[in-house]
Amino acid sequence: MTGFVEVAKVSDIDNGTMKKVVIGDRAILLAKVQGRLYATDALCPHLQADLSEGTLQGTVLTCPLHSSKFDIRNGHVVRWTALSGRLLAYAAKARPPRPLPTYPVYIDGDRIFIAPG
Q1: What is the C-alpha separation between 48 and 37, in angstroms, rounded?
Q2: Residues whose CB is less than 8 angstroms from the CB of residue 80 and which lie 6 or more positions away in sequence, other chains included
Q3: In the beta sheet, which residues pair with residue 9?
């Protein structure tokens, strides 16, 4: 378990919800979907919005600022922004799509550990 840090209790997070935790100067978002826990950066890689204020539908996390969507299982970009046409092309050129960093999660009883990298 080298590199893992205890961040919360499993009982602290209900199914379908998210919780922001801070490790040092890094904000991490924990999410529980169908009983499984995931950990990602809590800041959107697009414009650094607080993802804990976004929405979670299944494993898709939507940013509250520009509606960027990410799969919390692997950080895959589902949609970079809600823009379309020329605006989307410009936005993608100005800030190319980047995946949402994800982190390994380890559960020991009721304790949640993550390896924040």
Answers
A1: 22
A2: 46, 68, 88, 91, 92, 97
A3: 111
Nearest alpha carbon to residue 51 among 39, 33, 37, 34: 39
Distance CA 24, CA 112 (A): 17
Residue 104 neighbours by CB under 8 Å, 6+ apart: 4, 39, 114, 115
Q: How many CB atoms lie within 10 A of CB 106?
A: 16
What is the reported pTM?
A: 0.89
SS3 44: coil
5-114: CATH superfamily: Rieske [2Fe-2S] iron-sulphur domain (2.102.10.10)
CA separation for the pair 57, 50 (Å, rounded)? 17
The count of other CB atoms within 10 Å of the CB of residue 91 is: 20
pLDDT digits (tens, 9 = 90+) for 56-114: 999 999 999 989 999 999 999 999 887 778 877 777 777 778 999 999 999 999 999 99
